[in-house]
Design goal:
alpha+beta; D-Maltodextrin-Binding Protein, domain 2; Dipeptide-binding Protein, domain 3; five-stranded antiparallel sheet; globular; ABC transporter substrate-binding protein; SBP_5_dom
């Protein structure tokens, strides 16, 4: 066994995001964040959209996390861990004295319960597939076993994971929301409503949730990480149109418009001398795509899916969002390892697309539906896609719904023929090419409630993916990335997606809220790392 001893979380958390003038940070104050739509759930086993992602991370903790504003792993509930030489056994020593919001101490049994709950098919967690390398996963995910044989509690503060194969991503997996720890008694108390009554061990606790109006988070005074969070309270106001939210920020009523700068106001905001210094730009591992449900005819024919890829004018769509993206031609974004720089993708060629439809036996076109999130600019992008499809004979009626409803439709095998992913598009859970596969393109994600909205399952590619993630030796790094590159190029041959663009992130904060810019375009705590930001006006 080789032991990897890491710095204490408290030391890292307090130093990583601290500004140069640390004296100005004082405990206290509040922040107001707005969203157009209500939050669907705060259950870490279920929540999987950008809106609730960082909220959940502030209510719950896991064994691992990332240094604030970065993609560098650090321990959280774990004090230290050991990894066997063959990469199949991970042993974690937990912190002692960590409390849940209900006052009970968190132990290794809670870690085991929480991960087994995610894998249990009754939970219908979209994150179940992330734990596929743990021994006993197949039996547990099929409902044939009550738990995972590969999770062993050695004592209240020691837990061991035995994997059926080496997994180069396993530490990243344990930093996901799906691995966050929940108390069994609270889950059993609330049942399916646990997501509305979340109890974790995170820096904040839920103090109020008035559906359709607001949520209030309060600082958890017994939080194990002394000095975090900085704020005493966060108020999330929902039902706020993005344009109104921006005006309220200008009036000093809002600190962060959670839906970002509305496209209709983007150029105006960028040129406003009072706003431009409050705008933060950051890169992200993002791909916006059109998913085609391969289980619903005629999208079960590869020629039809390739035709859709060739029908869409991506440059025009990028103009709709004021050039805040670059056209995409493959699932991986350009800055992700494994991106194929020499791959040109499908050209924009409506006539060739028509020929492919004829080859598929639908020369006269067909009727279908295109699901889209109802927040601007997503409906306008969907309309542009609709126009492009109509030009080759595909008549797509648009179903513009709240984000949660689109996600729910995508998780049903026979409901949504096409989904424009905008507003819900894939931003990497962790900086590794495998993350763009399992949950959204792999067989394990093509399950009820999952995020593989194309319901695409290629068992040959699944085997290649497992082979790639078994390469834990650093000497195999280049070989592993090359294998992932081949996987994504084969996916493009099958064309379950039409990749549209890779988007940059722009956000804005009020002048009274402090913290390093990276906290507001945090690559993991999307969109904001609430634990680390602070109020400047605390006396």
């Amino acid at each position: 066994m080789r032991k990897l001893l890491l710095l204490s979380v408290a030391a890292i958390a307090l130093s990583a995001a601290a500004p140069s003038n640390a004296q100005e940070i004082k405990q206290g104050g509040s922040m107001t964040v707005t969203y157009k739509d209500d939050v669907s759930t705060l259950d870490p086993a279920i929540g999987y959209d950008w809106q609730n992602w960082s909220m959940i991370k502030s209510l719950f903790d896991g064994l691992m996390d990332y240094e604030p504003g970065t993609t560098q792993l650090r321990p959280e509930l774990a004090e230290s861990y050991e990894i066997s030489e063959d990469g199949t056994v991970f042993t974690f020593k937990l912190r002692e004295g960590v409390k849940f919001h209900n006052g009970r101490e968190l132990t290794a049994e809670d870690v085991k319960y929480s991960i087994e709950r995610v894998v249990n098919p009754e939970t219908q967690s979209p994150g179940a597939g992330f734990f596929g390398s743990i021994k006993g996963f197949e039996e547990a995910s099929a409902g044939e076993a009550a738990g995972l044989s590969g999770i062993i509690v050695e004592d209240p503060y020691t837990i061991r994971f035995e994997l059926s194969r080496p997994d180069a991503t396993f530490l990243h997996v344990l930093a996901l929301n799906f691995a966050h720890v929940v108390p069994k008694e609270e889950v059993e108390k609330y049942g399916a409503d646990f997501g509305k009554h979340p109890v974790g061990s995170g820096a904040f606790r839920l103090a109020e949730w008035t559906l359709g109006q607001r949520l209030v988070f309060e600082r958890f005074k017994d939080y194990w990480n002394i000095g975090a969070p900085k704020l005493d309270q966060i108020i999330f106001e929902v039902g706020q149109e993005p344009v109104v939210a921006l005006l309220r920020l200008q009036n000093g009523e809002v600190d962060v418009p959670g839906d970002g700068i509305p496209p209709a106001k983007f150029i105006e905001a960028m040129n406003d001398p009072e706003l431009k210094d409050l705008i933060i730009q950051g890169g992200q591992l993002h791909t916006g795509y059109l998913a085609m449900n391969t289980k619903i005819p005629p999208f079960d024919k590869v020629e039809v899916r390739r035709a859709v890829n060739m029908a869409i004018n991506k440059d025009r769509i990028v103009r709709i969002i004021n050039g805040r993206a670059v056209p995409a031609n493959q699932p991986l974004p350009p800055t992700m390892p494994g991106y194929a720089e020499d791959y040109e993708g499908y050209p924009y060629d409506p006539e060739a697309a028509k020929a492919l439809l004829a080859e598929a036996g639908v020369a006269d076109g067909f009727e279908t539906e295109l699901y889209v999130m109802n927040t601007d600019p997503q409906p306008r992008i969907a309309q542009a896609i609709q126009q492009d499809l109509k030009a080759i004979g595909i008549n797509a009626s648009i179903k513009s719904l709240a984000q949660a409803n689109v996600i729910a439709a995508g998780g049903e095998e026979d409901q949504a023929p096409m989904i424009w992913s905008g507003g819900m598009a894939w931003i990497a859970d962790f900086p590794d090419p495998s993350n763009f596969y399992g949950p959204i393109l792999g067989c394990e994600g093509a399950v009820p409630g999952g995020w593989n909205w194309s319901w695409y399952c290629n068992e040959e590619l699944d085997a290649m993916a497992k082979e790639a993630d078994a390469m834990v030796d650093p000497a195999q790094a280049e070989e592993r990335i090359a294998l992932w590159r081949d996987i994504y190029l084969k996916i493009m041959e099958d064309a379950p997606w039409a990749p549209i663009f890779n988007e940059e992130r722009f956000t804005i904060r009020s002048a009274r809220i402090g913290g390093d810019d990276s906290l507001f375009v945090d690559p993991v705590h999307i969109p904001v790392n609430y634990d680390e930001v602070y109020a400047k006006d605390v006396q």
